[in-house]
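Input.
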Amino acid sequence: MTGKLSDEEIARRAALPEAARRALEEADARKRAEAALPSDEIGGPKNIEPTRFGDWERKGIAYDF
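Output.
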């Protein structure tokens, strides 16, 4: 979650196994990192940088490098 956790959510997570809590923490960290991506690029990718995965996609057409 990008904001503070509610008391109810904290209690719910405390009842989960350690692996599930760790997975939720990792997902929260990914969401925070994605929210921190720059949004000032015009015409660029909307999500994470596609060159990391080796191709670009525009209107359903993938361009490989």
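The chain has a mean pLDDT of 76.
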